[in-house]
Amino acid sequence: MAFPIKVCVVCNEEFELKPDKPGFANRCPECSAPEEQADPTAKRRMDADERKSAAEANEARRQAMRNLLYRKDS
């Protein structure tokens, strides 16, 4: 069984679209590689204040969603 031949929208190269190919179906494997691997320095560590503010924001989001989903309409 032959795989379909596609043309990459980024580099215009032809490639075979295989079932277990990672990434996008309209990009070749080289162009659909995750960008995080290309720049590992972009991810930085958070300090204690940033972690606390992120946790508080997440808790506020969870509480708001809980209120919207489970409030009783009377």
Strand order of the largest sheet: 1-2
Low-confidence stretches: none
Largest sheet: 2 strands, antiparallel
Q: Could you tell me the mean pLDDT? A: 82
Shape category: elongated
Give the strand content: 5-15%
Give the end-to-end Cα distance, rounded to a whole number of Å.
61 Å
* Helix vs. strand class: mainly alpha
Q: Total number of helical segments?
A: 2
Q: Nearest-angstrom radius of gyration?
A: 22 Å
Helix content: 25-40%
Helix and strand run: EEHH
- Strand segment count: 2
Describe the protein:
With 74 residues, the chain is mainly α. The chain has a domain at 5-28 and 45-69. It is built from two helices and two strands. A hairpin with a 6-residue loop joins strand 1 (5-7) and strand 2 (14-16). The longest helix has 23 residues, at 48-70.
What brief labels describe this structure?
74 residues; mainly alpha
Summarize the helices and strands and which ones pair or pack:
Blueprint: E1 5-7, E2 14-16, H1 35-38, H2 48-70
Antiparallel strand pairs: 1-2
